[in-house]
């Protein structure tokens, strides 16, 4: 089968993030200049760059917390200004810091990953609690499920936020230095888990990291794109068979 502009792209080639000639300034300081980048479904994108090159700023624009000074961003094919399906996106910002007096428990914070704005008051069912238990198990926080989030160490809090992002099985998971402050064993388990999810569960990832060894190990040494000081290392989860124009294979 040949494809032309009138044929829809195979399912797993859909654009998930499209950044088109985006620039951003904080007052007079230009941080990002004319950046274009596209992530397709089932890409794992590792974002590398020195401190201050604008990686976090870029992620904040992608999740709608900052507006580009110029250029445009689309999510799942939709201009970000119109995009409403935020449940499809999990985001773990850099260095979450909780007010020590914040009253929620670990379990409540993880479960809150299932709420959307519309469903905030819905009752949690058995399936929801099972998902929560699974996510806590993976991030090794089951034993602290009833502790208050504000009383945990930074690394424990980060694990809670990762569990919260994973509970919904988002289509796109955006992670800003997710393993900073986490012990080596949990880091290794976490990377193993997300690489598995990428390989087998049809998820797309965008992750800022300073862990060059891990990024290059999984995504290869050569970045696919660069812009300013930011480098994008990309691996698609099934490079060989996704060329087959079979809409089914990514729906298994
Ligand atoms: N809220 C802000 N107001 C003004 N300037 C900011 C703000 N946030 C970031 N900056 C500046 O923008 C530049 C890019 O910051 P950003 O946090 O995006 O970089 P980064 O690549 O994520 O850095 P790091 O690797 O240290 O996390 C830096 O020079 C920073 O000082």
TrEMBL record:
Keywords: ATP-binding, Nucleotide-binding, Transport. Residues 17-252 form the ABC transporter domain. SUPFAM superfamilies: P-loop containing nucleoside triphosphate hydrolases (SSF52540). Pfam families: ABC_tran. GO terms for molecular function: ATP binding; ATP hydrolysis activity. The keyword Transport applies. The keyword Nucleotide-binding applies. Belongs to the ABC transporter superfamily. This is Metal ABC transporter ATP-binding protein. It comes from Paenibacillus zeisoli.
